[in-house]
């Protein structure tokens, strides 16, 4: 899930809303073989560029919408005042429900405080990035030096190297079964539940 707002301003040197920034990021993911890429943009960004809200390469938004990659979040005018939906909530909700990642330099502190499962998801599935001219560059270590590699991070279910897994203190006497969050070497390579699956189970 690509967050458009800070991405466009990052690419536009914080002066203009550069729609080309979105395309560069989308192309980076598509070239790596990712098929489910969604971009959220407020509907009012379809309006004509103004001196106080400069937008460049606006035709990119229409093209990505036709390709079913870009979704405009609702907005309307009420008595001359623009009413917009909170697009960050769309982003976090879809990423959480689809077990995806969020591409953004935002911390989503307000939404992280709403639900504990959202906080854990945002902490573990947020991908930051930089633009070097026209090159979209996410970090090779999205969660820091001791976290997963970028390739591993981008998996639906990141692989945890066995030497980094914490063994269960109860060992074979553990009664939690597949719900146990610790590593059980005696169970072999049975599939582990994804982060989102675990969080959904905990919130029930």
Question: How would you describe this protein?
Answer:
Pfam families: RNase_Zc3h12a. GO terms for molecular function: mRNA binding; RNA endonuclease activity; zinc ion binding. Residues 185-204 are annotated as: Disordered. Residues 162-187 form the C3H1-type domain. This is Putative ribonuclease ZC3H12C. The structure is a single chain. Helices cover 32% and strands 16% of the residues. It is α/β, with parallel strands linked by helices. It folds into two domains: 2-154, Rossmann fold; 171-203, no CATH class. The protein has a three-stranded parallel sheet with strand order 1-3-5, with helices on both faces. Strand 10 (130-132) and strand 11 form a beta hairpin. Helix 2 packs parallel to helix 3 (59-66). The chain is elongated and about 65 Å long. The two termini are 25 Å apart. The mean pLDDT is 82.
What is the overall shape? Answer: elongated
Radius of gyration: 20 Å
Give the DSSP E fraction (strand runs of 2 or more residues). Answer: 15-25%
Mean pLDDT, rounded to whole units?
A: 82
CATH architecture of the largest domain: 3-Layer(aba) Sandwich
Helix amount, in percent? 25-40%
> What name is given to the CATH topology of the largest domain?
Rossmann fold
Please trace the helix and strand order, writing H or E for each element: EHEHEEHEEEHEHHEEEHH
**Number of DSSP E strands:** 11
- The spatial strand order of the largest sheet comes to 1-3-5
Question: Major sheet: size, sense and barrel closure?
Answer: 3 strands, parallel
Residue runs with pLDDT of under 50 for 5 or more positions: none
Overall CATH class of the largest domain: Alpha Beta
